[in-house]
Write a structure and sequence with these properties.
Blueprint (H helix, E strand, L loop, with lengths): L1 E6 L29 E6 L2 E5 L5 H8 L6 E3 L5 H4 L5 H8 L3 E5 L1 H10 L1 H5 L8 E5 L3 E4 L2 E10 L2 E10 L2 E6 L7 H6 L5 E5 L12 H11 L3 E5 L7 H7 L4 E3 L5 E3 L1
Parallel strand pairs: 3-4, 4-5, 5-6, 10-11, 11-12, 12-13
Antiparallel strand pairs: 1-2, 1-14, 2-3, 7-8, 8-9, 9-10
Length: 254
């Protein structure tokens, strides 16, 4: 089983509009970050996590023209507003793309992108929406879900298991609940939100993430959803063994 980090950046990406690289070295390609998204694969099955506004360029870069399902973590724009590009996956497959989300997220997406879920003016629906349960199996991939506090809403935290290996994906949260901690124990790979070093009201800051890495003991950890204060080389030099800054295109194999 493997996970490809399609996008490793926060909602503004890196650089921000205005060519604002912040503390990130523009000469380091791994500092160029599109909005957060990922692809989990095992034995021919592909699961896309979120449809970021950069999804088209992300899937082109990863040479992906087919997915078996999409899971949305929540309905914030940086995680779902590339949804229209699922049309091309619909055309390639000849059938609506299966999409899963928690109840509130699915309702928000259905309301905002009604045409994609139900069709309009002679155009067919391109997504078959379904509720994301606490446990789900797609192909040979078993998925567990935990609701993560993300300011005033919740985002779906995900654990993928196949052939005795495990990958956790934890984006957009600011509190680690007991259910989350239990789900993220004993991971082979943990891909986790670490927005910046300073505290933030809706995201986990780097020192707190490292504290949870020390407690949960994943074999390998990759940081995502990073803003322009998080320079790749600086992080690489200071992070402990087993923890690394993620970047667009990074492939991690469990």
């Amino acid at each position: 089983m493997k996970i490809t980090i399609l996008g490793s950046g926060t909602s503004s990406g890196v650089p921000r509009i205005g060519n604002d690289w912040g503390e990130c070295d523009p000469a380091e390609p791994r500092n160029y970050r599109t909005r957060a998204s990922a692809l989990v694969e095992h034995d021919g099955v592909r699961i896309l996590i979120d449809t970021s506004p950069d999804m088209r360029v992300q899937l082109l870069a990863a040479q992906v023209d087919r997915v078996d399902a999409v899971i949305w973590t929540h309905d914030h724009a940086d995680h779902c507003h590339g949804i229209d590009d699922l049309r091309q996956l619909y055309h390639a497959a000849g059938t609506p793309v299966q999409g899963f989300a928690r109840r509130e997220t699915l309702a928000a997406l259905d309301s905002r992108f009604t045409y994609a879920f139900h069709g309009r003016s002679g155009y067919p629906s391109t997504i078959a929406g379904a509720l994301l349960p606490d446990r789900l199996t797609i192909g040979g991939i078993h998925i567990r879900v935990a609701d993560q506090p993300h300011g005033s809403i919740h985002a779906a935290g995900l654990r993928f298991e196949a052939d005795g290996r495990s990958i956790g994906y934890a984006t957009d949260f600011n509190i680690m609940t007991d259910d989350m901690a239990a789900m993220y124990e004993d991971l082979d790979i943990w891909v986790v939100d670490a927005l910046r070093r300073r505290p933030h009201p809706t995201h986990m800051e780097l020192p707190a993430v490292l504290g949870w890495v020390d407690r949960l003991q994943p074999t390998r950890t990759a940081l995502i959803h990073m803003d322009n204060s998080m320079d790749y080389a600086t992080l690489r030099a200071e992070l402990p063994a087993g923890v690394e800054p993620g970047y667009d295109g990074l492939v991690l194999t469990a």
